[in-house]
Amino acid sequence: MPLTATRPSAHDRTDGASRTPAGGAATSVPRWGIGASAVLAVLLATAGCAVQGVDPETLPGEYVAVDGEGGLTLRPDGGFDAVDVPVDVLGDVTDADVVDLAGTWEYLDMSASDVVYLSVDDVAGGTSRVGGVQLYVAPSGSVYFHPDPDSGHKVFYERAE
Fold it and tell me: Quick one: pLDDT at residue 51?
């Protein structure tokens, strides 16, 4: 059986001496320690930025479109109606500029944002195969569609007076 020699690493000490300097502090930080520290710093920095959950009981009511005509009603029974909704909210309508929607809504308490999921049962004024869309809740209490996150375009609705 042949003998194989291995080269000792810089951390292998054969004289019994400690690998830490005289002050007791380590001379290097493991890579995983740097990564874990970075992740922890990001989590701590963004923890205060999250919107506190919305009380779903406050969501029902009438909302009016900020830019243009149209409106949205979230009923306490879980139904919704929306009129003159821009077609880019659905994304697949090619035969109209605005549509009317009807269906049911459900509040989803997500970690990143508060979302009302609209299950679309009826599309009037155009043709669409979309079964549902997300309606986001802003910290101000207004709601908005965000059809294309890459464009930044949002369709806002404020609570009717």
Answer: 45
